[in-house]
TrEMBL record:
It comes from the Bacteria. Keywords: Sigma factor, Transcription, Transcription regulation. GO terms for biological process: DNA-templated transcription initiation. Belongs to the sigma-70 factor family. ECF subfamily. Transmembrane segments: none annotated. This is RNA polymerase sigma factor. Coiled coil: none annotated. The lineage of its organism: Bacteria, Pseudomonadati, Bacteroidota, Cytophagia, Cytophagales. InterPro entries: RNA_pol_sigma-70-like, RNA_pol_sigma-70_dom, RNA_pol_sigma70_r2, RNA_pol_sigma70_r4_t2, RNA_pol_sigma_r2, RNA_pol_sigma_r3/r4-like, WH-like_DNA-bd_sf. Residues 108-159 form the RNA polymerase sigma factor 70 region 4 type domain.
Amino acid sequence: MTALEFSCSIGKMAKSLKPFAVRLTKDVEDANDLLQETLLKAYINREKFAEGTNLKAWLFTIMKNTFITNYQRIVKRNTFIDNTNNLHYINSTNATTYNLAYSSFALEDINRALQLVDETYRTPFIMYFKGFKYHEIAEKLQIPIGTVKNRIHIARKELKDHLKVYAYQ
C-alpha cells in the first residue's frame, strides 16, 4: 500500500474514530487532539501496519493506547512526593469530590423536555443523536432529506425553549 493510499484510507476512518475519542476524553477539544495524534502516529508508523489486516481496529488500538499513555502522564504530573519522614505519595486530585446530582437532574429535565417534543420531530432527532446520518434517517423514515434536516432543527429549537433554565447568562 502506497503512502497516498494509506493516507486516504485513514482519512476515511477518521469520522468513525471521533465518537470513540469523545467517549474516552469526555471533551470535544480533547477528542480532536486525540484524533489528530492518533492519525499522526498511524501515518508515521504506516510501515508497521500489516496489509490485509483490519485498519479500523489498528487505528482504534492506537487511539486507546495513546489515550492511556496521555492519562498516565497527567496522573504522574499531578502526583507529588511528600518529603516528610513518612515519604508518602499523595495524589493531589484525590482530595476533590464531585457531586453528580446536578447531572442527574439535568438528564431528567432533558428526557422530560424530549417527551414534550412532537413525535414527528422527536424520532429523527433521536436517530440523529444516536449517530444516524441524514440520508439514513430519510431512508428509514421514507421522507426527503430536507424534511429530516428541518424536523431535527425544529426539535432542537423546541428543546432549547424547554431547557431555557440551563442557558448561560
